[in-house]
Amino acid sequence: MWFFSRYLTAATLTALLIIVPRVASHPSLESRASCFPGGGAILSAFQKPSQPRSSWWCPASQQHGFLGFSYPMENSNCSDPSNQFAKINQDFQRMKAQFGATMVRIYGPECRNASVWQNLLQAGIANNMAIIPQVWWGFLADQDLWKLTAASIISVLRNNPIAPYVFHSIAFGSEPIGDDVDNGPTQFVSDLKAFKANVSSFGVPVTISEDWDRPGIMSGQNWTGLGPVGQQIAPVIDLVQAHIMPYYHADLFPTAANIWPYFEQYIPFLQANLPNKQIMVSQTLWSSELGGSHDRGFGNPGENLGNFTLYWDTIQSMCSYFKQHQVGWFFHTWDDSQEPGLGLIDDNGNIKIAFDPPKC
Ligand SMILES: *[C@@H]1O[C@H](CO)[C@@H](O)[C@H](O)[C@H]1NC(C)=O
Ligand SMILES: *[C@@H]1O[C@H](CO)[C@@H](O)[C@H](O)[C@H]1NC(C)=O
Ligand SMILES: *[C@@H]1O[C@H](CO)[C@@H](O)[C@H](O)[C@H]1NC(C)=O
Ligand SMILES: *[C@@H]1O[C@H](CO)[C@@H](O)[C@H](O)[C@H]1NC(C)=O
Ligand SMILES: *[C@@H]1O[C@H](CO)[C@@H](O)[C@H](O)[C@H]1NC(C)=O
């Protein structure tokens, strides 16, 4: 409220008081009460909302608990049905109708064409859901492919003025530090800054989707402060998309029976070391089958439906913790056809567990 103290005179104060009733019915103030996504604001087909982006989105403090699904798109053939509007739209519809999802976090998009972002944008609008695009390196020898993805996301932003009202934020890489992409952190941080500068005119926040529990790199030892790479990244990112994954610490968490203390250590660590930034758990997971798409290591204990069920029951039961800490989370992943064992939906289209995350 700097302008009050700096510029307010008695005359303007009187003027302000007189126009109060009109200010109260101003569209941008009304829409703050009905915000996007999940707060009543409705996207209309390819028509940009009239208000500024800053008043369109629900505040971070409201985006807690279950937000939606992590949605792998790992087929590089842009003509494959998984990259087409019809299939994406069908999945979005079901996510929303059956589970109350309001956002979709895109994961591992191997199609490098603008077509996939255009299809996602269209499906987001059709279902009134928000999307988090991702710039993805991938594991092929050609480590420059990400540039095609970055350019295709930017072209969709440029060609669709509505896109910043559908794209919540953009993840520049998923575990880019863990995977040591871009010839290492020095080049990566430089490209992160360049990408952020390139999308700044669209107002879409930029972050990385990463595990911050990497002692000596992202974090300090024993959860003491940030590590050297974490320190370089922290000032650049607009929000936090954290991978909180006891699954990959099978030595500490052989089963899903006692995973919650890990979250209770991790989330306050993020809050203390990345202050004043929205926190989302963009990736958290468990496998319902031995030998699914991701090994745990340490002999792969607990990869079964019982532990998968217990894991998601535990996360679902912590609604008040997520609310108190203002942290949202995504279920990784939507469907077993995307990443075997991790999906909520099995290969026959059935729901594997009782999933009805409370809104609290
Ligand atoms: C990729 O985009 C180009 C245009 O930029 C288009 O000609 C081509 O058909 C697209 N490929 C697929 C598979 O969608
Ligand atoms: C890509 O997908 C389309 C549609 O399923 C298919 O017709 C085409 O053969 C695929 N291309 C390759 C190279 O697999
Ligand atoms: C940023 O934009 C410039 C100019 O279009 C382009 O050359 C560069 O590759 C872009 N970099 C990133 C990281 O998006
Ligand atoms: C981490 O904490 C444990 C127990 O508090 C201690 O034994 C260990 O030396 C610490 N490690 C480092 C690297 O500080
Ligand atoms: C978790 O997996 C272990 C095997 O690693 C098994 O003994 C245990 O019963 C499982 N827990 C549940 C709740 O099914």
TrEMBL record:
Protein EC: 3.2.1.39
Gene Ontology terms: cellular component: cell surface; extracellular region; fungal-type cell wall; plasma membrane
Keyword Transit peptide: no
Signal peptide: 1-25
GO molecular function, one term: glucan endo-1,3-beta-D-glucosidase activity
Protein localization: Cell membrane
GO biological process, one term: cell wall organization
Recorded superkingdom: Eukaryota
Protein name (database record): glucan endo-1,3-beta-D-glucosidase
